[in-house]
């Protein structure tokens, strides 16, 4: 697949750290640094601390990969702001509740957000890290 014109919505954020082009950006304007953390979008260009930067928040974005990715894979960020496949894990609350028809009334899964924030779906496959692929961003 080849897309020659991308139409998208972008926000202007002030970079709170060094941000690399085509990397994932957190809500505070810093590049993502924790695997699976919540991100707002993708940096269109490189930015230094204090620079105004464009961050794409919807549509099909060009993103650097941090691992091999299959077509259609759900994606999360790695610790360098690159796209990697989701591990698909969920968190079970501490103080385990037996899951039976009479004991499943309490909270089994905890937290407001999933332990991994899936930000998009791979529109192309990648054979490894350091490549650029097209990703359909989602919320």
Detail the topology: elements first, then pairings.
Blueprint: E1 10-14, E2 24-25, E3 41-43, E4 52-56, E5 60-64, E6 74-77, E7 83-85, E8 120-122, E9 132-137
Antiparallel strand pairs: 1-4, 2-3, 3-4, 5-9, 6-7, 6-8, 8-9
> Largest beta sheet, briefly?
5 strands, antiparallel
Net shape = globular
* Helix percent band: under 10%
The span between the termini is: 23 Å
Strand percentage lies at 25-35%
Total strand segments: 9
Strand line-up in the sheet with most strands: 5-9-8-6-7
List low-confidence stretches: none
Order of helices and strands: EEEEEEEEE
Number of helical elements: 0
Give the oligomeric state of the chains in this entry, treating copies of one chain as homo and distinct chains as hetero: single chain
What is the averaged pLDDT score?
A: 87
Q: Pairing-aware structural class of the strands and helices?
A: mainly beta
> What is the gyration radius calculated from CA atoms?
17 Å
What does this structure look like?
This protein is mainly β and 139 residues long. It has strands at 10-14, 24-25, 41-43, 52-56, 60-64, 74-77, 83-85, 120-122, 132-137. The strands form two sheets. Strands 5-9-8-6-7 form a five-stranded antiparallel sheet, with no helix packed on it.
Name its key features.
single chain, 139 residues, mainly beta, five-stranded antiparallel beta sheet, four-stranded antiparallel beta sheet, 9 strands, globular
């Amino acid at each position: 697949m080849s897309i020659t014109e991308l139409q998208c919505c972008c926000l202007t954020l002030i970079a709170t750290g060094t941000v690399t082009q085509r990397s994932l950006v957190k809500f505070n304007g810093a590049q993502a640094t924790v695997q699976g953390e919540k991100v707002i979008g993708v940096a269109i260009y490189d930015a230094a601390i204090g620079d105004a930067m464009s961050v794409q928040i919807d549509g099909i974005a060009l993103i650097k990969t941090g691992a091999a990715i299959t077509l259609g894979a759900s994606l999360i960020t790695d610790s360098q702001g690159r796209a990697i496949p989701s591990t698909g894990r969920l968190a079970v609350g501490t103080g385990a509740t037996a899951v039976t028809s009479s004991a499943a009334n309490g909270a089994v899964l905890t937290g407001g957000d999933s332990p991994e924030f899936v930000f998009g779906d791979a529109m192309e496959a990648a054979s490894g890290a350091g490549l650029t692929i097209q990703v359909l961003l989602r919320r």
